[in-house]
Amino acid sequence: MNKEAIIVGESYECRKTDFARPIIGEVIRKEANGCIVNVERFYGLDADKIDQVNGQVLIKYSEVAGIISRECFFS
Fold it and tell me: Model-level pTM?
C-alpha cells in the first residue's frame, strides 16, 4: 500500500515478513520508511518482536495489506 493511501488513526492488517502471522494495528504515525503501528491483535509467537513498553512496531508501507473496518454487521 502506498504512503498517501494510509490514514493515521485507522486500523490495518499488516503482513510483516519476519512475523509468523499477520497483525492488526492502528497507525499512529507515518515516517519516511514506514509507519508506526500500535498493535491491537497478533499471533502469540510474535510477542517478542513487538515493543514491550508501548506495544508498537514499525511496518513498511509494502507490508500494509488493507484497512480493517470497525463497523461490522452480521445478520
Answer: 0.87
